[in-house]
């Protein structure tokens, strides 16, 4: 059963997102007003070292008032290649420049409300370039044993669904 969008108009927008109102026709012919959020793509990157440790950030999210481990991430700028954005974000937020990036997965974290797509990448090596340019993004950066990731997710230490999905995929790829 497919819903059909008949029209869509913007009700608010800024450089980060746009809130739209759509007229949607349901399969039975009824109509409903559906709000949706249009977002820029998000690029995410990390690296795994020879000891099977993954580069992560410990940060606070004021919206949910929660602390958790995450991967370096940010919006893709207009005209920017997604993979290049992932590498840029990783270096800006961690001070580590990734080696060649590999696509890990793309997720839609809230596809009932937004068109957000998060593109996750990883590298098998990284080079330290100095203190992070965007140190305000996290309280600390650390190489965390990948084998600990499933238990960390279970304890709620990795609360963001996109990060949990990517880290579980990385755990599977590297450790089986």
UniProtKB/TrEMBL annotation:
Alphabetical list of InterPro entries matching this protein: Nudix_hydrolase, NUDIX_hydrolase-like_dom_sf, NUDIX_hydrolase_CS, NUDIX_hydrolase_dom
Cofactor(s) needed: Mg(2+)
Keywords: Hydrolase
GO molecular function ontology, one term from the record: hydrolase activity
Domain of life where this protein originates: Bacteria
Range of residues in the leader sequence: none
Annotated Nudix hydrolase domain residues: 38-171
Pfam families assigned: NUDIX
Enzyme Commission number(s): 3.6.-.-
Family: Belongs to the Nudix hydrolase family.
Record's protein name: NUDIX hydrolase
Organism: Streptomyces wedmorensis
